Structure of Tetratricopeptide repeat-containing protein:
Amino acid sequence: MGTTKRLFNLVFLGLTFFAFAHYQANAQSVKKYNKYIEKAEKKFDQGKFEKALKFVDKLESKSTQKFGAENQFLAVAKLKQAKYNWALGQFDDYYKINSDALAISQKTNGENSISHGINLIDAAQNMVNYGNYVKAYDYLEQAIDLFQNSDAADDLYLSELKLKKAEILIAIGDYNKALKLINQEEAFYLQRTLDKDNNLKNKQLEKRFEDAARMITLKSNALRHKGEIRRADSAFSTGESWIKDKLNKRNKYFADHLYYFAEFLEENGTRELPFSYYSDAYIYSISANGANHPSTLKYLEKLVLNTIKENNISKALAFYKDLEKILKTNFDKNSSHFVKLATISFESDLRKGDIKKLEQAAAKLSDDKNLLPADHPIRIELLNTLVKVASAKNNYQNAEGYLNQIIDIKSMLYGDTSVSTSYSKLDLAHHWVDHTDKFEDAVKIYNQEFYGKIEKQITTKHYKYVNLLNHLATTYQIDDDYEKASDLLDEALLATRTKYDNQDIDFGKELNLIADLQIKIGEYEKAEVNIAESISILQNFDTEFSIVYYIMALETQAKLLSIKGFFDEAEDALELSQKLYSRTIPSPEYNPLLASQELASVYLKVGKYGETEKILLKALERNTELYGEDSRKLILPMVDFGRLQLIKGDYTKTEELGRRALEISENTFGKNSTKNAPAILLLGELYETLGDYDKSEEFYSRAISVLENQFGRDHVDVATSISKLAIVLFYEGDENAQKIEDLLFEAKTIVGKRFSPKSPLYADLLKDMARFFISEDKLEDALSFLEQSEDIWKDKAGRRNNIKAADIHILRGDIFYKQRKWNAAESEYKESQKLNEKFFNDQHPEYVKATSRMSKVYYMDGNQRKAKTYIEEVMKNYNVFIKEYFPALSEREKTKYWNTIRDDYDYFNTMALTMHDRYPEMIQTVFNNTLKTKGLLLSSSIKMRERILNSNDSILKTQYFDWLDKKELLSNAISMSKEQLESEGINLSQLAREVELIEKSLSQQSELFSEGIVQQDYNWEQIRETLQPNEVAIEMVRFRHFDHYITDSVVYLMLILKSEEKSKPEFVVMESGNDMESKFFNNYRNAIKFRVQDNFSYKNFWEPIEKAVGLNKTIYLSPDGVYNQINLEAIPIGNQQYLLDKTNIVLVSNTKDLYLKKNASETSQDEKTALLFGDPKFYLASRQEYISEFRSGATQISDLPGTKIEIDALTKLFEQNGWTTSNYLDTKAAEERVKDMKSPKVFHIATHGFFTEKEDRKQDNSFENNQMSENPLLNTGLMLKGSGDLLTKTRYNYNIEPGILTAYEAMNLNLDKTDLVVLSACETGLGEVHGGEGVFGLQRSFLVAGAKTLVMSLFKVSDEATQKLMVSFYEKWLETGDKRQAFIDAKKEIRNEYKDPIYWGAFVMIGI
């Protein structure tokens, strides 16, 4: 004010003539109007702001009357009006009043006049008072520019302008420039206080001291904001003494100095001194400025807030009432001072935890535009309150909105590029890091605002610096830059130790934050030290507000204890934290939901599954509500919930949760982030449980890769993943036992280094090692490992009967079983049963596993009754598993899962044979089991297709056809080179996963359509009811004999069902299964191939069956094993006769097809349409071009001219019978044309077929994915146009270009209404034989594609004989309508011309 007054007098007194020549006014009138200003200022100094306004109103009125609507006095009056309105807290048209004043001043005084310069300074001060430093800086710069070019201002005046500029720069955040300006003027101001001028009056000397005091306070404050803690402390302390000495305590500059000193102390963690300084500042300001002066009110407001913060309730209430009384006495109720009072009340409510109505009340005030202008600084305080309330209520979306509003207001007040605004942008970035997934946006802010601006303005001692380091470390941790995160944490810890006393609450808080981050990056040893020190500090702060930090430290400690396996201690810490939380108040810094999730994680590890489920369900629901369904906050609770479902045996739900968690994680953090590891490991464990060891190995290997890449090989999480991988390799049958053992010992060593050998992690590793050592017959070592593991778990979870003991009992039972110690084994298995039943139920997979083992114990010990009882319970549960799990699995996964339980079916079959005299009903059970499980995978695939295509769900159908398209793309991609895949932008592994995931989804959704249909288990009685006189149904069962373990001895069991009303299943046992599948099968094939007498096949493959069923029967035969590879009709029975002559053998996939056929209406094509393919042009180029390839071993394909005759004859035949035909010959017989067909009634293709045996396959280097290329469906197919050209380029890679329709592709054909498919080609019935599932080849593919009946060949056929056979078959069928009889009669007719089976015995018909 001194500066303005000095120049005011200068202008109005010294320059009177020049200033008012325009109005021809005299000095007397100038003095008269100047009196109004002097009186107004006097009233302002007395705190009588309303009266001050009246004087400027008079000045405005009088000067307008005298000089007109625009005059110099009017400009001054408006500026004073704005100042007094500020003091009153009235801001209507505040900006307009100032801008109008300057417009009048510029017009009346002149743009470059001293008078206008003075008005600019007053306007700048008004903007500082308001808090708009952008405008203040602009006005002041104009003034400085004007005075620097004028002779009217002396050095003192220019120095004062520079200090004013420094004040504004400090507010904006340009501390470097501010300090530079202050340092330039410091000597000048201090020297003036030292001048020995005896002519100076006391007032003049006091003014010099005040000017210096103002400079000292500014410099201290600049150092404070810059983070120069020691220099600032020294400056404030020295300044306090100097100002108190030179000026009395009741001077306003001393009060101002104390106030800023208090702020400095408070923000840097000092507890008691700030209250003292705020109190003194308030008291001295009352004397210097008056009780209602804005500065005094500011000091009192801060005093109230300080006492609230320190929880000094009585003092806070007293000061609050003082403030309220002052405001009610001196100000109108719509004054902004009352809004400020409300913000203080809100802070009190917030700290008391009374937030229910707080957000609504604060928002109402903030939104009221009549109380405050849109950019008023008090709005920032309201919004900060709203941020705290929203955060305390976990409403982070609202909090983000408020933070953005703060940035908008600060951009207007301080400038968008200012450091002050940057701080608010950092607050938003911190919010994103703490509560959202907007990491990239946060990093951008850190880069732009901190590294681009703030870092240049502050030191590492700044009170916000450590918090910034914490958040930066978090972002690096999220981004997997753990080295950088660790460095930042070390820096933060060093800064904290330097800054705070070692018993300071802020020191304890920071230690906890650092420890929490150190746990996340795996620095457990450092975290243990820091969290222990943090707890020792924070446990001493137990107020309602501060105790929350102790709670947070306890939860960090529990997290570390849980990782290290100290579950009792972790649970105790978490339960104490929850108990303490019940008496604390909601804090925006603490989220109790995270604590409950940590508790759930501990509960999960110690077997408290009920409590775990309740907590996680609530957490998932709440996190979804708070953060959205794609938030990273869902990942860990989702993984834990998935692991709970895995433990409970709900594999479908486990995969759903694991896949979803991984999807969120990958989308949030990227494909290679360590944050994906928990979900990856969960899926690895799931697939291990399901027996899908290939996929489990893939996931475990992936986990090791991402973890090792960040943490190195010696990390605990890497070690546990290595152990899991070793066990999967063991399950897969990896023959390198040493490799597995090395991996297990490596994992054991790593964990032993980092954790105590008494930790549960170590116990789990010992258990895994025992599992492997049992398989290696190192039983004593295995027992030792189990004993150590059990002791650890007893120590860690002894009071709970931990579920981990169940697995130990199983493994120990396995050792005793292997040693034939039946009683000891029984005891261990029973203990496992008890625990699993206690924790879960008697349908849990682990309970069933123990039950299965107990049955085997009883069987080996001769207790047939108990063995039967227990295995029947197992079979019952398996039937439930198949119903529950299969719909959510792909066919590949179903195969893997079936393999994990198939041994028990083989065991049951052995029991049924061994015990049939005592328990004949067991044979009936075998029959029923076979009806349920035989062709299970094929049946599932066919049902899925039928249900989808017959549904009314257009979306599901679209998804189904999309799946077919992706399968087609995958079949082509498998054959691409790495370069081709990159060129096409195809990720083969990802595409394969997509195909499988869509298949799983389709399978699960299609199962929903059958929920309204009565689902029944078919039984042998239903099959018997379908049989007519002289008909027999035979279910063949191939199984491996059980003797202590499942052996390699193959047995064929023929379950025979006759049509007699009360007949029960009979059986024939053929125990020489191994010989049947080797030498007897080779004899059969060689006899046909070389046209020699077959003296063994009848005796070894049929005679035992014939003795049971007799001759001249119709036999519905469901083959298994080797019987899928032979045509029984072509077996000679003597007298130049074959079985074809004596028995009508009808092949079916499963004898339940008889019942289904009888009771279901099939969808078929009404239109008589036939698609006929034949005589493909195998070589589009001349064969001469491939001479070198042929010499190098490339396959040569012979032409099939007879197939053209065949197709022409069939075309004529069909058309004569009223059918519509389409035939494709030569270049038209193309793979693309086959794929385009739409369910003809008949599909007939005459060409070469082939199947490449597994042991003969040799991969081309062009194969990108060897594992997928091993699929048998990719190694069998039909040759079409260009296939000869294709085979000169590759031996086994059939999809590099069109030409060969593989069985994999054939599954996608549209044959859902096709009655008959005839594969008139060589070896179209061959493929890989899977026990209980038939042949994986073209046969399977065409049935899956929808064909009702299929004709195919089992070996190479004669072109000419095949042509005649097919024509004869169609003639007879079209004449009689009986496909099966027509086929038999055609064979018999051809036999008259071609006696040997090689001509007519290759073809078989499957289906009814």
Confidence is low (pLDDT under 50) at residues 1-26, 1009-1014, 1258-1266. The chain is about 65% helix and 5% strand.
